[in-house]
Here is the input.
Amino acid sequence: DTAVSQTPKYLVTQMGNDKSIKCEQNLGHDTMYWYKQDSKKFLKIMFSYNNKELIINETVPNRFSPKSPDKAHLNLHINSLELGDSAVYFCASSHDSESEQYFGPGTRLTVT
Amino acid sequence: QQPVQSPQAVILREGEDAVINCSSSKALYSVHWYRQKHGEAPVFLMILLKGGEQKGHEKISASFNEKKQQSSLYLTASQLSYSGTYFCGTTRGGSNYKLTFGKGTLLTVNP
Here is the structure.
């Protein structure tokens, strides 16, 4: 029943490690996003995919690499994790770029 | 360009009204409003498009002044469930369809 799901919900890891976050939507949407929300609650877009094609790639370190194996999935892989990567990462999806976005529950990443 | 929201925080008693403003220095195509409760994901409230009408449902409505690049969210007769952080997000249209969020307005409704 969940419209947009993310795994894991919590991720605690050490600096230098590599980790992945998975996202799936069952809404039939064409567009998916990754957002980062820092400790000050600032919600900033990182990437957007439309039909598996990357359409938005903000100024994000290239340690972050999104992958969309199909329209319903958008994963985020992070290499060489740093303390500053600690945040809540939200996946979202929408019908198109001007439609309402449905957010996943978020993944709280803590880098120690 | 990040839109500017005001106020940063507001505290109400149940039943009171509030207005949250969102403004941009750039021409806007659309304004989106979301509410996020503590520890939860943002939830969509409404979209206002350039040339569109004022939107609203129940006691939450919004307006979009295209000439001033401003939008306002109106919450009337607030309920405890309205508490949360309200974000406006803006797009500039054309090939620039990125949704850029403001820093949010923390609304607290007390009994």
About this structure: Chain A has a mean pLDDT of 94. The first strand of chain A starts at residue 4 and ends at 7.
